[in-house]
Amino acid sequence: MKKIELLCITSNRTDVSYHRQVEQACLGGADMIQFRDNTLHDGDFLKIAVDLKKICRKYDVLFTVNNRVDIAAAVDADGVHVGQKDLPVEYARKILGSSKIIGLSASSYEQAKFALKQDINYIGHGAIYSTQTKQDAVTRGLSVLKDIKQISQNIPVIAIGGIDKSNVADVIGAGADGVAVVQAVCGAKNIKKEAEEIKNIIKNIRTNK
Questions:
Q1: CA 43 to CA 38: how far, in whole Å?
Q2: Cβ atoms of 125 and 113 closer than 8 Å
């Protein structure tokens, strides 16, 4: 798994297709794309996933699927992201194999400790700030992120939840290895530009450390 500084998650919007979202995010510097849509029927989800993977391959960007381990396996995606209530990591690993990326959500320090005992490639921690994407998500702020980073060892911690160009510097400064964004990039008016600006902020922080 290469270094993931900017993970862009697709936004369920009617004015911009998933295909355009992904292409523009890739052009803007996304390191990994996560395809997420809980409303599509399996056949439609599969067809779009095949197309999005092709776009990601064109730009040498990793392509993953949210929750759907079966779809990730079917399209030979680079990996999957699962939540605490999704298919357990051990079974996802059996289905996908050792070479695929598996990310696991951990909203608390206790969940992160348990996650680190499993065969995962990164922890997705949040919500850091309030977010419209998941309105029931508990806001954690930066303190829990700092605590998790202290125990994560060689497992990257990707922060998520209300992150955009106005606060990404604080999130990276608190120890996040990367950030996952939805509305800040794929939900934006100018997807490529927003991705570029967030990526440049992250790179500048890394350079000046």
A1: 13
A2: no
Pairing of strands 6-9, 122-125: unpaired
Structure-derived torsion over alpha carbons of residues 98, 101, 137, 130, reported in degrees to the nearest 10: 160
**Could you give the CA distance from residue 103 to residue 115 in angstroms, rounded to a whole number?**
9
Tens digits of per-residue pLDDT, 27-61? 999 999 999 999 999 999 999 999 999 999 999 99
| Calpha distance 170→165 (Å, rounded) | 10
Distance from C-alpha of 110 to C-alpha of 165, rounded to nearest angstrom: 29
Q: Which two three-digit tokens encode residue 53?
A: 């993977």
| Cβ–Cβ under 8 Å, residues 202 and 175 | no
Give the long-range contacts of residues 36-39, CB within 8 A, separation 24 or more.
36/9, 36/10, 36/12, 36/65, 36/66, 36/67, 36/182, 37/10, 37/12, 38/67, 39/12
Q: Are 188 and 209 in contact (CB under 8 A)?
A: no
Instruction: Give the global pTM.
Output: 0.96
Task: Report residue 108: phi and psi, to 5°.
Answer: -135, 165
- Do the beta carbons of residue 52 and residue 24 sit within 8 Å? no
CB 131 within 8 Å of CB 162: yes
- pLDDT, tens digit, for every residue of 161-190? 999 999 999 999 999 999 999 999 999 999
Task: Tell me the CA distances in angstroms from 106 to 97, 103, 112, 152, one per residue in order.
Answer: 22, 10, 5, 12
